[in-house]
Every structure is written in C-alpha cells, then in structure tokens.
Design brief:
Helix content is 85%, strand content 0%. The chain is mainly alpha-helical. The longest helix is centred in the last third of the chain and has 41 residues. The chain starts with a helix and ends in a 5-residue tail after the last helix.
C-alpha cells in the first residue's frame, strides 16, 4: 500500500508529524508542567495562560492539525486498499492520532485551559483550580504523548511491512 512514491512520502511526513507532536507533549509531561507546578499558583496560572495563547500559531497549528488531516487521508486510502500490506497499521495509527491527540486535546485539555483563563490567578479559587489543573491536565497530556508516539511507530511499521510484507522481528 505504501510502496508508491506519493504514499510513501505522505506516510513518512505523517509519521514525522506524529513524532513531532509526541515530542511536544512529552516535553510538557516530563518537565514543563513540573516546572510550572513549582511556581506559586498565580505565577503558574499566568505562565500557562501565556503558553496557551502563544501556542495558537501557524507553526504549531500546521503540524498539529495538518498531521490529523494527513492521518485521515491515509486512513481513507488504507480502508480503500484494505487488502494491501500495512493498511491495518495505518488505520490504527490514524485513529490513535486523531482520537488520542486531537480528540483528547479538544475534550479534556482545552476546557481546562479555558477554565484557567477565566479564573482570577490571585484568588483562592484560582489556587484550587491550579492544583487540580496541574494534575488532571498533565494526566490527559500523558495520553496525548503516548497516542502520537504509538501512531509514529505504527506508521513506521506500515512502511516496513508494505516494503517486504513482514513485520520486522
């Protein structure tokens, strides 16, 4: 399925996009949120709110949403070519990325970001929200880290399988 030049290129670029997004989320899970949690709540809230504003930019958006679009296109092609090697890996990878990155972001992380933006950082309510935010936002971010990482691996396996028809051992 992926042997052709255009399909190979699309799958490779999509795998790279998945990997890049996984890396961004990994950074937040492993040290950014930990560093922000060490700040007093008002400072942590201000820093995270700033990050949430700055992340809305064409560079991040094109990788984050472009990878989701590429995954969707690859999934449709894989369904249409179900009988070809690598198709199942592409479909699973696409679902993992779309649901685990985009879906989790929209359903869990963005609502928490919006609540954080609406609270008075210096208030007791802000401090309570921040304590919960750091834990729950980071938990969902772990999911957003693992999903595109697995999608990357599966797309690499799909490329491999479509070249020689066997899963690498």
């Amino acid at each position: 399925m992926i042997g052709g030049g255009l399909m190979f290129s699309l799958t490779l670029v999509t795998a790279l996009g998945c990997g890049l997004v996984a890396g961004i989320f990994y950074a937040f899970s492993t040290f950014v949120m930990g560093a922000l949690a060490r700040l007093v709540p008002a400072q942590g809230i201000a820093a995270m709110n700033s990050i949430n504003v700055v992340v809305i930019n064409p560079w991040f958006g094109s990788v984050f949403f472009g990878t989701a679009i590429a995954c969707a296109v690859l999934a449709v092609i894989a369904v249409l070519n179900w009988h070809k090697p690598g198709s199942v890996y592409v479909i699973i990878a696409a679902v993992l990325y779309i649901v685990g990155s985009l879906g989790v972001t929209m359903a869990f992380n963005v609502p928490r970001n919006n609540a954080l933006a609406a609270v008075d950082p210096a208030s007791a309510e802000g401090a309570r929200l921040w304590a919960d935010y750091v834990v729950t936002w980071t938990l969902w971010n772990h999911v957003r880290t693992v999903a595109p990482l697995l999608a990357t691996a599966l797309l690499i396996v799909a490329i491999w399988v479509s070249r020689d028809g066997a899963v690498p051992s």
